[in-house]
Each structure stands twice: as C-alpha cells, then as structure tokens.
DNA sequence: ATGCCAGTTTTTAACTGA
C-alpha cells in the first residue's frame, strides 16, 4: 500500500497538479491539508474518476483537511477529542477549525492533520497550537487502544530537530523550532508512535516545505515539517519512504512537497 | 535545472502562511 501526505495550499488552485500527481505516483491513500475550500466544494468528481473515495473536512477560506482512498474508507471522524478552538482578536468566541480528519482505509487507521501555525512565540495562536497538539496526543492515545496499523500524517508546522531547517541561526526566537513545540511532538510519540523518516531525492535532509519567495526552492532553503508518525504495526510494515520534491517544481505548485510511504502489510 | 510569493474572500485591500 502506498500512502502519502501533502499540504496542497488550496485544492482548487492545485487541482491540475494534484490530478497529475495522483495519476503518476498512484498512492492508495492520500492525506491532504490546506484545502482552502468548504467540504461540499471539494472536487469529488475529479478525484472520483481516478478511483478515490473522499472524507473532506473544510469550511472555506482557511485550513481544511481530507483523506482520499482507493482501498475503502470507513469510520470517518472529523475533529479531535475535546478539540480546542481559536479566538481571533476581533472574535467574540473561540471557534474550532477543520484541522483533523480520520478514516480507516484498507485496514489502516489514518489521520490527516494540519497543526496550527502559531504565528509568533507568545502569540495567542502559539498557545492555541500547543493546546491543539495536546488534543491530538489525547486523541491518538484513545485510538491506539486498538492494535490495528495507525498513523498520523500531515503538516505539523514543527521541525523536529535543528537539522530540519536550512539554517537554525535564522530561526532564533521563532515558532516551529521551540522546545515547547518539540516536547509536544515527543509527547505524541510517547503514546506509542515513532516517526517514519523519509529519503530525500536530492541533498541530505528531506525538506518538505520551501517558501515561494526568494528562490528558496532552488537554493534548498527548506524545512522538514510534514511528518508521519505510526504505531509499531504501521512502522514495521514500511518498505520505503521519500519526499517527492519533483512535485514542488515548475508552475502552479504548492509550497509543500508530498511525503510518500510504501507499506507491505501482512 | 530549481527560477525570484500565492491563496482566499469580508475583493481591488486584508489576512494568512512559516
């Protein structure tokens, strides 16, 4: 089974590139993030023609996640256990956002997640990011009571180590590299998960994100923030994993590249 | 080659992203 995760930065704007990539890479299961469309506006027909069922969770302008599957799609769950919301400065109340959706596909339990950005250390969005990650940990812990292959895939907006950004000196006092964020990843792993570390197709670190600006991609000024965490039943089945940087090339691309995992399930 | 921000809507500016 081939399973992938990709922050597409608008499934509408990315549709031609997405369909092309689905056709050539041929993943069985795909976790998408940053749909930037309402669930009902997802291009179900276009991906349906390629054989995918879809569980979409989106509200419009921001965020949005989905699971696509060619190997069955059941037990869809939208949102985390006791998921916190975000209260914008001008909002009267906090609101939950579409950042997590799960489905069981071909016997594998899959979560597609889009962790809040955090904006700046000390910002209310940063506190929200840490609360959200704790809810993700609690949700994983709850679902890991079952022994089936289980994985959380998505845009974590955290670089696990200093080597996972192009130059740690550029990230002083920045989000994505703080101890608190990394501790949240460790806490998630301590529920019984470990990271699947992908192969880079070029260079030494498999970055998954490069800013659109300032020639970041040609200069390989990237970050490794799209991650895959699996339980032992999942990770022991892994045959290969890589970041498909080819999908970041050319016109009309996302600023993220897909992470692909190949499994041999017993 | 990899090519110098892009996406959305509360649209012609503001906000978000990381």
From TrEMBL:
Is-annotated flag, keyword Magnesium? Answer: yes
Keywords, A to Z?
A: Hydrolase, Magnesium, Metal-binding
Task: Note whether Metal-binding occurs among the keywords.
Answer: yes
* Cofactor names: Mg(2+)
Q: What's the domain of life for this entry?
A: Bacteria
Per its UniProt record, what NCBIfam families does this chain match?
exoDNase_III (TIGR00195), xth (TIGR00633)
- Indicate what this protein is called per its UniProt record: Exodeoxyribonuclease III
């Amino acid at each position: 089974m081939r399973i992938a995760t990709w922050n597409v930065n608008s499934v509408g704007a990315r549709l031609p590139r997405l369909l092309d990539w689905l056709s050539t890479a041929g993943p069985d299961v795909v976790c998408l993030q940053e749909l930037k469309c309402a669930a009902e506006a997802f291009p179900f027909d276009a991906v349906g023609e390629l054989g995918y069922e879809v569980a979409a969770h989106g509200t419009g302008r921001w965020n949005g996640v989905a699971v696509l599957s060619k190997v069955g799609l059941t037990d869809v769950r939208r949102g985390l256990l006791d998921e916190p919301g975000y209260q914008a400065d001008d909002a009267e109340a906090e609101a939950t956002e579409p950042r997590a959706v799960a489905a069981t596909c071909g016997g594998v339990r899959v979560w597609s997640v889009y962790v809040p950005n955090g904006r700046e250390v000390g910002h209310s969005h940063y506190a929200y990011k840490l609360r959200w990650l704790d809810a993700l940990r609690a949700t994983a812990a709850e679902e890991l009571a079952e022994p089936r292959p289980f994985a959380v895939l998505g845009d974590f907006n955290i670089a696990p180590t200093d080597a996972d950004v192009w130059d740690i000196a550029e990230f002083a006092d920045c989000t994505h590299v703080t101890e608190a964020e990394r501790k949240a990843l460790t806490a998630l792993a301590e529920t019984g998960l470990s990271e699947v570390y992908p192969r880079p197709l070029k260079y030494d670190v498999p970055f998954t994100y490069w800013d659109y600006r300032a020639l970041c991609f040609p200069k390989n000024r990237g970050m490794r923030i799209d991650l895959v965490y699996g339980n032992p039943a999942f990770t022991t089945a892994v045959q290969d994993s890589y970041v498909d940087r080819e999908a970041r090339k050319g016109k009309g691309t996302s600023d993220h590249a897909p992470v692909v995992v190949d499994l041999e399930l017993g």
